[in-house]
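hiii, so i know i said id send this last week but things got crazy w the move. better late than never?? heres the sequnce for the chain we talked about at the cafe, plus the structure i predicted for it. fair warning i was half asleep when i ran it
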Amino acid sequence: MTVKEIAELIGGKVEGDGSTAIRGASGIKEAEPGDITFLANLRYQPLLKETRATAVIVSPEVSVPEGKIVIRHDAPSLSFAKIMEHLGPRPVTYKPGVHKTAIIGDNVQLGKNVSIQPYVVIEDGAVIGDNTVLGAGVFIGRETKLGLDNFIYPKVVIRERITIGDRCIIHSGAVIGSDGFGYATVQGMHHKIPQIGTVIIEDDVEIGANVTIDRARFDKTWIKKGTKIDNLVQIAHNVIVSENSIICAQTGISGSTVIGKNVVLAGQSGVTGHITIGDNAVVGGQAGVTKSVPSGQTVSGYPAAPHNEAKRIQALVHRLPKLYEKVAELENKLKKE
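okay and structure toks below
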């Protein structure tokens, strides 16, 4: 493809020689001559001078070194992803049909063009929607319902009476609908509380590898449409995650917490139970959230506080050794007097 053809594909504007041929796509640091790359974060703008890429996709406000071929687009990262679909290897596809080693229970409903790979187990009364792919070793529990166009990677467990919407992607090792962590302690003994609720996953949700989403004690644990969940995330019983939120790796959310719309929970953040994180809030990496967060606020640190306040506290903590030395010096002076 030429630079001009790529620009037409993504709806961008060429600056430079549009007839230049592009053979591949790569990251801005790794790119070689013949590659196209992208710059989405202005923090990395100095890399434009260093990259060996033949062409770069940039946003309209980026200053570009003289002689560099660029395609300007409002969404460089998304545009680059579209290009990768054309220049990268073709995705693996699966033919419709049921593999002979699969075990299908009674009264199971399979939609059109469903692909059931080796050693899948589908228990009684389950419903699998049209064009859904179940990878090798997937387990689908009794009366669980999957919608249309889902892709379930190998070794996923979706337990009984769970509902999955349309166009969801669930990666290997995820467990949906495991029992919530609930016990009543009487005279030093921990007695299990039955977890009789369910999990609802709405449309266009992606769930990373080894994520665990517990079923509710009563009612439902609810992941709403468009939410994206990274690997190794724990979501406890009765949690509600609202539309289009982002939950990064190794985050843990305790029971009955409500996460608002468009919330970002950065990596290794921890959220206590029975609180609310408002719409468009951001929780920084490794933050420990112990109380509700208002809509639109960014918090960090432990216990989590407004980001600017948390940065000031952290700066003061780093000054404690010097403060200790100063106090010791003053004490010595007072003793001599």
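btw The first strand starts at residue 13 and ends at 15. thought thatd interest u
miss u guys!!
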